[in-house]
Fold this protein.
Amino acid sequence: MSEIEGPNALSEVSARTGFSRNTLRRDGELRTDESLTAALAHGEASVYLSAGGKWLVKTDGAHLAAGFTLAEAEALGADLGEAILLGFDAADQPALASIVSADGDEFGPRIAAMDLRGIATEGRFDPDTEGRLAQAAHLIGWHAKTKFCGVCGQPTRSAAAGYRRECTNCDNVVFPRTDPVTIMLVHDGEGRCVLGRQPRFPENLWSCLAGFVEPGETLEDAVRRETMEEAGIAVGPVTVVASQPWPFPGNLMIGCMALATSREIAFDTIEPRGVPLVFPRRGPGDAGGRACGGADAAQARGHRPSSDQGVRGRDSLKEATREGAASSAACRPRAVSPRRLSSRPAPRAVPACAGAARASP
Ligand SMILES: [Zn+2]
């Protein structure tokens, strides 16, 4: 039994988010340049292939497979000398990621190219595969943007089986970076919270506010600053609830609960993001009795990590928020947008653009 399936699983909200259930053993402390050579000599190695920003998958009717053999990868034109060793599965078989240069349309009827968001949203693969693809996407994106040295400008080369890049001219060494992003459910402690949306969001998708953590800033201060910038609401106590790998392109999404200490919404004071949506108090039958949405709401409704194709386990923090809002009639938006958390909203149309995540892709 893995750790996330053990007794602590029910209290670990992070394990219920999409991309979080990658089971590969990374062996980071053991990686050397020889690790890649050894992995490529393993007869049972599998390779995840990125082409034009999408992921190649083998299709056989209703069945999909994201892993390719080394021979299949080479036949598709993968440059395995630049492959990234993601880690090892329970049978000690290596999993790698590599790039092929052509578009997915060129590989024939039994191979398709799929977008990682679509893979996660549609639940086309098991959570472990989703997590591996997220790890691969994060690393491939980092390599693509780190081909030249930030000190002397000369080319860098991949090292440590893809977990490091070294300058070919000076002694500069760089490691994969992960940028922290806060996503916060700002609530008033009385059952109401603030959500927003971006124009590119699908219909009826609303999100918690979110934003990058800036240099020299704590997570809690980032929540307070971003909430003030995006909605003009002052925030007091902040609680970190969960985190989620977010490979768009290389973030860690950190979910927080934040208690508003002011009620006036002064939206668009800094960022032009429209008007936030405020959900009313939850009904007496709803678990928790707190603000709706977010990982907290998912937890309150007893969502469990699942090893099957269920949607619950692969919810992103944002999608959990949407689900949390939509699942309760008491939390359904009134199609209005009040200017005060504490006042009954006057009817008005919800704008097409309302505030949301600067950091989200
Ligand atoms: Zn250099």
About this structure: The chain has two domains: 3-174, 179-331. The first strand starts at residue 46 and ends at 51. The first helix runs from residue 33 to 40. Residues 149, 151-152, 154, 167, 169-170, 172 surround zinc ion (CB under 6 Å).
